[in-house]
Design brief:
Helix 1 packs across helix 3 and helix 2 packs across helix 3. This protein folds into 2 domains: about 60 residues, Arc Repressor Mutant, subunit A; about 120 residues, Ribbon (Umud Fragment, subunit A), CATH 2.10.109. The chain is α+β, with helices and mostly antiparallel strands.
Length: about 200
């Protein structure tokens, strides 16, 4: 049991912490109530208030969902390079973390990959840059995505076409990759930001 908390308070804190890590924003009082089967949101509210009083949660008055777990890790896992090989997608397996607040990029779960190559230079994405991606399995046409194609991870513009998908580079010297429906293609995430070391 977390020091100074009842068993139920510790469970509520763990739920909020996990929800934050997974979604990038905290649960509502109603979501906490539903998780624990409380008959009224009031019970969830009381537990959350108790966690604030004991210093485990911090809220910004007047802002919806502006709730943070004190000491909650604010970082983005760096999972490797966009290059040949099977990527490590589990956050727990990340070797390094970027000291960035994921909420800066919006809602969701995020990871970073290091760019290798010059296929996206037309979008000002250079070798050695770190691209920030929101984990998701789908994308809109034209978005920059990290995809797993066979055994290779690549960063390209995603364009569904009548007979499959085209993965287009932002470099006229790099050929478009045409993916047929029977090919193994998996979207890993959509690019939402970029970090460059200077």
């Amino acid at each position: 049991m977390t020091r100074g908390l009842t068993d139920r308070q510790a469970q509520v804190l763990e739920f909020i912490n996990n929800f934050l890590s997974r979604q990038g924003y905290p649960p509502t009082v109603r979501e906490v109530a539903a998780q624990f089967g409380f008959r009224s949101p009031r019970a969830a509210h009381d537990h959350m208030k108790a966690l604030q009083k004991k210093g485990f949660l911090r809220a910004a008055p007047g802002l919806p969902r502006a709730l943070n777990v004190v000491g909650h890790a604010k970082h983005i896992p760096l999972l490797g390079r966009i290059a040949a090989g099977q990527p490590m997608l589990a956050v727990e397996e990340a070797d390094e973390y970027l000291d960035l607040d994921p909420t800066f990029f919006g809602h969701g779960s995020f990871f970073a990959l290091s760019v290798r190559g010059d296929s996206m230079v037309g979008d000002h994405i250079q070798e050695g840059d770190l691209v920030i991606l929101r984990s998701q399995a789908d994308a809109f046409s034209g978005e920059v995505v990290a995809v797993l194609l066979e055994d290779e991870v690549t960063l390209k513009h995603f364009h569904p076409v009548a007979d499959g998908v085209e993965l287009r580079a932002a470099n006229p010297l790099v050929k478009t990759i045409k993916v047929r429906p029977e090919d193994s293609l998996r979207i890993l995430g959509v690019m939402v930001g970029l970090v460059r070391k200077v």
